[in-house]
Write a structure and sequence with these properties.
With about 260 residues, this protein is an alpha/beta fold. It contains 10 helices and 9 strands.
Length: about 260
């Protein structure tokens, strides 16, 4: 088991404790995000044990996360608002650019700040109960937890604009179709599927996982000529690792499994 607090628990699983389950534990509040919970998420991802190779974010109860805890909405001047938003940015950066790949196991509400949290993960598995919304637009506010940067990369600017202008809600099937989730499973199966994926990911070479979670998103933002150079450098670093050499050798000697149709 890992560290736990009132609103967040961290559990280690796998034979070598290589997968961390980071769980929001405010079911009575539909796992709404308070500032304390956001900071607990930051601390959890900044302090994952060395054994952990992949992490899963889950929500206790019927919902993944229904967004910002409305009891914390208060009037702020512009400076206070900027600092508050930047605090959320730093916390979700610890998820996206932390030490390991992160999979979000989605069910029920994935709304507002909950969708911002889900978009900071590297993969998303949704079950049939999942629905997505950004109600900030109809409440007279704007996203402040990184959603304007991350969500358009999943579904495009036009779809996010529509959600915020009109209050549109996507169900699980339509959400998977437009790009919110990479996997869609039956009700109650999101965590199991996320753990299956995390176990598989944890077997990858750590430097390859690092390249995919830290370097690939940055290459996508670079001009092509810069991206090619960054790719060349990362490829050279990754293939020089002892574990990479061992895996390539095993493949060349016919000892590694070949790719097959699933």
């Amino acid at each position: 088991m890992g560290k736990s607090s009132k609103d967040l628990s961290v559990e280690l699983t796998g034979k070598k404790k290589e997968v961390a389950i980071v769980r929001l534990t405010r079911p009575a509040k539909r796992n709404a995000l308070s500032d304390g919970l956001i900071l607990a998420l930051r601390d959890a991802f900044q302090n994952l044990p060395a054994s952990v190779r992949a992490a899963v974010i889950d929500g206790q109860g019927e919902h993944f996360c229904a967004g910002l805890d409305l009891s914390e909405l208060k009037e702020r001047d512009a400076g206070e608002g900027v600092h508050h938003s930047r605090m959320w940015h730093a916390a979700l950066e610890a998820v996206q650019y932390g030490p390991v790949p992160v999979i979000a196991a989605l069910h029920g509400a994935v709304v507002g700040g909950g969708l911002e949290l889900a978009s900071a993960a590297h993969l998303r598995v949704a079950d049939a109960t999942t629905f997505y919304a950004l109600p900030e637009g109809t409440r007279g506010i704007f996203v402040g937890g990184g959603g304007s940067v991350r969500i358009p990369k999943l579904i495009g600017v036009a779809r996010m604009t529509d959600m915020m202008l009109t209050g549109r809600v996507y169900n699980a099937e339509d959400g998977e179709r437009v790009g919110f989730a990479q996997y869609l499973v039956a009700e109650g199966q999101a965590l199991d599927k996320a753990l299956e994926l995390a176990g598989r990911i944890a077997q990858n070479a750590p430097l390859t996982n690092f390249a995919l979670t830290h370097t690939l998103p940055r290459i996508a933002e670079q001009p092509a000529d810069h991206g090619f150079m960054t790719e060349a450098l990362m490829a050279a670093i990754a293939q020089s690792a002892p574990e990479a050499k061992q895996r390539v050798r095993a493949f060349l000697e016919g000892k590694a499994a070949k790719v097959a149709k699933s």
